[in-house]
Amino acid sequence: MVKKFVSYDTDTGELPADVEADLAQRFGEKLSKADADATYVRGEVADAKYAPRVATQSPMLVVGTRSKTGNARSATAPTSSLSDGSVQAETIRYRHFATCDAHSIRLVYGNITMGEPGPNPITVKAAVQYSTGDQGIVPVYFNGSRTVTIQPGGIAVSDPVPLDLYAGVAFYTRQRVSVTEAGQKWPIGPRVDTSVGDGMEPTDVVDAGNPATGHNTFRFGPTAIVGVPVATGLEPTWFLLGDSIVQGVGDTGGEPVMDAGWPARGLANNYGYINAGRAGEEAGQFQPGRGRLLGRLQLAAYCTHALVNYGVNDIKGNKTAAQIKGYLETIWAMLDRMGIAVYQSTITPITDNTGTTPLNAAQEAVRVEVNNWIRTTPGLLSGYFDAADASETARNSGAWKSGYSTDGTHPNSTGGGGIAAAFGPFVAALS
């Protein structure tokens, strides 16, 4: 119940006449003082009724780029998305872009690799940096401590960081990850590119120093960068869920996004996202009760929209069209329950290495049937993105556009860029 705030005579205990009349009109009889107190908030305001101003605030959402869920672009299995165990600690800096004006920034880290628990506990120390060099470094705390130990399968969310982010402006995360014994490992995700200010340093330079080595290697980084957007009218923030195509296998990515896979490349630096792709995954494996949801599904709560890109591996695994439809509808329902607008991608071609001939006629028939069904916007979908139309020579041809794929399954850098070029305007139209 929302109470009104009114003047109240504390000396006599009498209600003002207008309040008493209001109660009599609403309830048909004079109420007791206790009943009145249940409806009206007692207060003393000189000669006026006063309604307190209630502030509105946006929810906590992804507000930066390059969020990865322990899924390095080149990894084809959880074991290949871990450090090599040769060192026990290192510090890494990554450049990110703010995707909106935001405050109350928090860094999220996971001890999870492609939906599987990490092999051992890890300890993380972090800071956020405004500019290059070692200027403008703000320490990050976890429940009041500079470090946090994350158990296998765990996620740690920092305390709010006292800084503001501004849309389109670069900033840097600095994180040090360590283990207690030789041979232990940690999840890896983003690719280091020293040309944009990324870098690695073996020693602890979280709070000062200039990490500058490790170019073109995959290292530990944030699972998400979240905060409270200043504006209440929100741009979409995206939970990118799917297989190796979302993860970025086969694609080299590059500037300006520094992440691979056509979904992230299409978002560029304009929208916050979390890349939750897993190589080899089928829609039938991302289902309720499956361990693979770990460290991925719960992160969708930081997003307003989801793009689901499953189907290739289900088809190659000889699942029927009916099975695939059922799996997808279950995934959509999980996301819809979280209040997320769900979009499905159509399934790109599956061909031999020439890119022109479907790998299997029966499987191609399933792909065409599922794609035609997606185009009807069934069930809980808010819409769909036609990645197939963006990548095929013609609708349902089963052939890649020239130069779009090297192995017949994954878009290469050219193909990823081509599909991304269509996805960007699609997303912009939703804003």
TrEMBL record:
It comes from the Bacteria. Residues 396-416 are annotated as: Disordered. SUPFAM superfamilies: SGNH hydrolase. Residues 403-413 have a biased composition (Polar residues). GO terms for molecular function: hydrolase activity. The keyword Hydrolase applies. The keyword Hydrolase applies. Residues 240-415 form the SGNH hydrolase-type esterase domain. It holds the Pfam family Lipase_GDSL_2. This is SGNH/GDSL hydrolase family protein. It comes from Rhodococcus pyridinivorans.
